[in-house]
Specification:
This protein is of the alpha/beta class. It is about 40% helix and about 25% strand. The protein has a domain of about 180 residues: Rossmann fold. It has ten helices and ten strands. The strands form two sheets. It has a six-stranded mixed sheet with strand order 6-7-8-3-9-10, sandwiched between helices.
């Protein structure tokens, strides 16, 4: 088997308990989670609000250190990544958030926003970055001719989210951590963006870590599923197995609460 791109080993993250009487009152938002993500696959992390999905995602992205346990990129623990290896990690692992579109610079046009990571992460010159940005916009269904010069406020939510995806793809990542990337979108646009993400995956051999509370989304996109409850993994397996024969009561409850499935 190939080497995992990312691996979490017994990762725990503690936070101070709000309203706790003493400084030593902590709770584990993520509690002893182990997980591997291999090239080209889609792993979904599901679980109800507050179960620790985003906290796990932030640790995998290196945005937050685990309290205990280790996250490794291609076999090297994140804190040991230096110089070129650290830059490789920063480039190869990209993120799309629910409100990625909203975090675009309101004064920068779409073309420039997508060109920026091309210049920073890939070291391209201005002209080449602009050309590549135009290709990326075309790929996410926003013809550059029509969209590149627009400011973010002149786009719909779904279009802004596509710009966020284009920007994540600009660094030519191996893995995109997508934290509720379609949750803010209307159902029909949601299906469109999911289709786009799957198509880009097929073209580029991308891996996704897809964080969601929506099992319809899991059905549409995931190879494997990890189910979290109060910081722990309570069930994991192939998407088919987990969705067709959930073993844990909690997963059954989640399934029962799932809205209309997203069409393929
Ligand atoms: N920076 C922080 N400081 C203190 N507590 C935090 C912090 N970040 C998250 N938490 C707490 O950790 C728990 C897990 O939060 P997290 O955001 O990971 O959940 P989630 O599964 O992503 O939920 P949602 O589906 O609502 O996005 C929650 O109880 C949350 O309040
Ligand atoms: Mg979250």
């Amino acid at each position: 088997m190939s080497e995992p791109l990312l691996r979490a080993d017994h990762v725990t993250r503690k936070f101070p308990l709000r309203g706790g009487m003493f400084a030593r009152d902590w709770f584990s938002a993520v509690d002893g989670v182990s997980l591997e993500i291999f090239p080209g696959e889609t792993v979904a992390v599901v679980g109800e609000s507050g179960s620790g999905k985003s906290t796990l995602g932030r640790m995998l992205l290196g945005l937050m250190p685990p309290t205990t346990g280790t996250v490794s990129f291609r076999g090297t623990p994140l804190p040991s990544l230096r110089g070129a290896a650290r830059r490789k990690f920063r480039r190869e692992i990209q993120v799309v958030f629910q409100d990625t579109g909203a975090s675009l610079n309101p004064r920068k046009n779409i073309g420039d926003s997508v060109a920026l990571p091309l210049r920073w992460n890939l070291g391209l010159g201005r002209a080449e970055a602009a050309t590549r940005a135009a290709v990326l916009l075309d790929q996410v269904g926003l013809p550059a001719e029509q969209f590149a010069r627009r400011l973010p406020h002149a786009l719909s939510g779904g279009q802004r989210q596509r710009v966020g995806i284009a920007r994540a793809l600009a660094s030519n990542p191996s893995l995109v951590v997508a934290d509720e990337p379609v949750s803010a979108l209307d159902v029909s646009v949601r299906a469109q963006v999911l289709r786009l993400m799957r198509q880009l995956q097929a073209e580029r051999g991308l891996a996704y870590l897809f964080i969601t509370h929506d099992l319809g989304v899991v059905r549409a996109i995931a190879d494997r599923v990890v189910v979290m409850q109060t910081g722990r993994v309570v069930e994991h397996g192939s998407a088919d197995a987990v969705l067709s024969a959930p073993r844990h009561d909690y997963t059954r409850a989640l399934l029962a609460a799932t809205p209309v499935p997203v069409p393929p």
